Amino acid sequence: MRTTLDIDDAVMEQVKKRAAERHEAIRDIVEEALRAYLNATRPHAPCKLQWQTEGGGLRPGIDLEDRNSMLDSMGPLQDR
């Protein structure tokens, strides 16, 4: 597939140098780098949290399943 990319000049100079050293096409170097990146990137499993409270439980009106209600209970952002 043909495509056009805007690549930082310094990065492209390194790609050209590597291609020349290895007697390979620039395309081969870019494909190799993309494959390595895609194979190394793995999505993280969702994190499961367990909420613990101190002092006898939650304040009235706090719902741990409702992120917005927790943020609202903390007050305006500038107070945090």
List segments where confidence is low: pLDDT < 50 over at least 5 consecutive residues. none
Mean pLDDT: 84
End-to-end separation: 50 Å
What composes the largest sheet? Answer: none
Order of SSEs, N→C? HHH
Gross morphology is elongated
Helix coverage percent of residues? Answer: 40-55%
Radius of gyration: 25 Å
Beta strands, count = 0
β content, as a range?
A: under 5%
- Find the structural class using helix and strand composition: mainly alpha
The helix tally amounts to 3
Describe the structure.
It is a single chain. This protein has 80 residues and is an all-alpha fold. It has a domain at 9-40. 46% of the residues lie in helices and 0% in strands. The protein has helices spanning 9-22, 26-40, 67-74. α1 crosses α2. The chain is elongated and about 70 Å long.
What tags apply to this protein structure?
80 residues, mainly alpha, elongated, single chain
Helix/strand layout:
Blueprint: H1 9-22, H2 26-40, H3 67-74
In short:
By secondary structure, the protein is mainly alpha-helical. It contains three helices and no strands.
